Amino acid sequence: MTLVLVSGINGFVAVEVLVSLLKRGYDVVGTIRSESKTAFLRKKFKDAVDNGKLKFAIVPDITATGAFDEVLKQYQFDVVLHTSSPFYLNAKDVEKELLDPAIKGTKGILESIEKVAPSVKQVVITSSLAAVGNPRLGAAPGHVYTEEDWCPVEWDEAIANPYLGYLA
Questions:
Q1: Which regions of the chain does DSSP assign to beta strands (E)?
Q2: What's the pLDDT tens digit per position in 102-130?
Q3: CB-based contact 65:40 (threshold 8 Å)
Q4: Residue 45 and residue 18 in contact, taking contact as beta carbons nearer than 8 Å
Q5: HSE of 144 in the Cβ direction (CA atoms, 13 Å)?
Q6: CA distance 145 to 133
Q7: Looking at the DSSP assignment, which residues form a beta bridge with residue 58?
């Protein structure tokens, strides 16, 4: 059976991805910051946990060098779905709380895959409309977004405002 790693397993997108993976019969290991944060998932997906279809790996800080090394060494993953990125609008230090985890977490998981996980055949990195939307233009009903669309928020704007920091 295909074994899938889902980073940030307790996030909104990750939970929806998890539902889909389990319905299709995949085995899943999800990363999460602490054991206490698994309680909701252990309850919601009790059958999958009890049957060994869903396991958890603690990765307390995705910005740490080699943060994903241990979980990637522990299992022979076929697929990695990176959904882990913080989202909240009351960050006090936007760079440390939003930008670093998004950037360093993504780079870090890719570096760890390359370094210690030769079994990985596919990698999916999720994003959102935030990556392509333009907050200066507002809503764009009917607009079809393409690879030409990118959020124009600059670093200095992002670190000064949590909303723009999330978009960046």
A1: 3-7, 27-32, 54-58, 79-82, 122-125
A2: 999 999 999 999 999 999 999 999 988 88
A3: no
A4: yes
A5: 0
A6: 8
A7: 32
